[in-house]
Amino acid sequence: MNTEQALHEIGERVKRYRLNRDLSQKEVAVRAGIGLASVARLEDGKGSTLANLIRVLTALDALDSLDTFLPMPPVSPIQLAKLHGKERRKASRKS
Fold first, then answer.
1. CA-CA-CA-CA torsion for 46, 70, 16, 9, nearest 10 degrees?
2. Domain locations in the chain?
3. Each residue of 30-77: pLDDT tens digit?
4. Which of the 8 DSSP states describes residue 72?
5. Are 9 and 1 a contacting pair, CB within 8 Å?
6. What predicted TM-score, i.e. pTM, was given to this entire model?
């Protein structure tokens, strides 16, 4: 998948979320605090800022879908080995 295809796919998914919630592009724009043209560009796969994508996902109550879309990767065995030899320099904060 290239960049243009990914932008188009993300736009289609955002549009599907919006339509499933029976919202117009204008309603999403108002809830997200961005312009209508920004929502339209995002849905058309013409690009958007990361901040606007997050605003739109928040407006659609879909921000939690990022965990599925881009889950936090586990720490690699190499990173674990690097961290293993490090000495802690701070204690845990007590409540």
1. 40
2. 3-69
3. 999 999 999 999 999 998 999 999 999 999 999 988 888 888 888 777
4. P
5. yes
6. 0.73
Residue type present at position 40: A
Position 54: which residue type?
A: I
Range 65-83 burial, b when 16+ CB lie within 10 A, else e = eeeeeeeeeeeeeeeeeee
Pick the CATH number of 3-69 from 1.10.285.10, 3.30.70.1130, 2.60.120.200, 1.10.260.40: 1.10.260.40
User: C-alpha angle 9/20/73, rounded to 5°?
Assistant: 50
